[in-house]
Amino acid sequence: MNAIAYQMDPLRGLAGLSTRTQEIPVAGPHQVVVKVRAASINRRDIMLMEGKYPVTMRPGVVPLVDGVGEVIAVGDGVTRARIGDRVTGTYFVGWVDGPQTQALGSQQYGANHDGWLAEYAVLQEESVVHVPAYLTDEEAASLTCAGLVAWAGLTKPVPPSPGATVLTVGTGPVGLFAIQHAKMLGARVISITSSPDKAERLRKLGADEVIDRKQTPDWENAVLDLTGGDGADHVIDAVGMITLPKSIAAAAYNSQVTLIGAFPAPAGAPTGDPLGGKYLALRRVAVGSRTDLEDMNRALAEHGVRPVIDRVFPFEQAAEAYRYFEEGDPFGKVVISLRS
Questions:
Q1: Distance between CA 209 and CA 224 in Å, rounded?
Q2: Burial class (CB within 10 angstroms; exposed 0-12, middle 13-18, buried 19+) of 261
Q3: How crowded is residue 229: how many other Cβ atoms within 10 Å of its Cβ?
Q4: 280, containing H or E segment
Q5: How far, in Å, CA of 315 to CA of 337, rounded?
């Protein structure tokens, strides 16, 4: 019996996305075979497709790192999963806990290991993570990348204390997860957005104050005003180098600025000291480990938080889902469903 899998050849845009016949995989030692129920798209997947991601996409790889499904087979020696379990996978194939190394970071599902845009996926046992039971398949397929990088950005090395001010910059899935996570941790949240409609949706999601950057171009000064001149204790910049100078300007003394966004600085942007003389910690994070993902899932379950889903496409419309992700300005995750 055969199934269908998508495959991606990089540097060809959506023309590189095609389908092929997939034989139902056989689980090898310490492997788990999953019947996929849903998968979702991240900015990282577009960057891989365009050849702009630090890891090179393997030609013909099954794309997407976010997904969920039901375990249908386990190989010899598997103890982390049973047939019938609903699971997702880690971002990095072998990063379980502790510091990340370059070797661990180089092995990724949907890049050089087959990902989730197929009827069946094969995970290494150490990659298997159970998902919160209360989440739908579409929601559970949205955790591994955007959800986890926002969680790691907020909680590592030290999470914000209750009452601390967290500034979120950007309204993509990472920015939305950052708001949800920060509220779970008891923080005050100030968010930057680009329209009144998005501002209202961010307030409903939990943001305490929202600043429209189009109405207030110097939004870093507005953040300082809202914090009595002190600035934000923790900044999650989910846009990139283009907003980083303002994020730093809005940050408090001894704060932490976490750069997650991948958009480059505009041409002609000034160079020099990016910290502008401020004393703070500036870092970039590489998603997170399996332990981080498990910690996040426990926190989500404790608080009953649900990922924001913008739109769900059927499996046969995967190309349309990619196109909508790139062109449709989604508010939340774009998901591809395999449920009949």
A1: 12
A2: buried
A3: 8
A4: none
A5: 6
CA atoms of 37 and 131, how far apart (whole Å)? 13
Beta strands, E only, the chain: 2-8, 17-23, 31-41, 66-74, 86-89, 120-124, 128-130, 165-169, 188-193, 209-212, 232-237, 251-259, 281-284, 309-314, 333-337
Report the predicted TM-score, pTM, of the whole model to 2 decimal places: 0.94
- Would you state the torsion angle of the CA atoms of residues 10, 16, 19, 20, taken in this order, to the nearest 10 degrees? -60
Helices (H), 141-172: 148-155
The ranges assigned to domains in the chain are 2-145+288-337, 157-284
Name the H helices within 16-99.
43-50
Phi and psi of 295, rounded to 5°?
-65, -45
pLDDT tens digits along 113-139: 999 999 999 999 999 999 999 999 999
pLDDT band at 339 (very low <50, low <70, confident <90, very high): confident
Task: List, for residues 229-277, the tens digit of each pLDDT value.
Answer: 999 999 999 999 899 999 999 999 999 999 997 777 766 665 566 677 7
What is the arithmetic mean of pLDDT over 85-114?
A: 96
Question: At 178, phi and psi to the nearest 5?
Answer: -60, -40
Q: What is the largest CA-CA distance in the chain?
A: 65
Cβ atoms within 10 Å of 156's Cβ, excluding its own: 15
The architecture CATH gives domain 157-284: 3-Layer(aba) Sandwich (3.40)
**According to the model, what pLDDT value does residue 273 have?**
65
14 token code pair? 């959506």
User: Which fold does the domain 2-145+288-337 belong to in CATH?
Assistant: Quinone Oxidoreductase; Chain A, domain 1 (3.90.180)
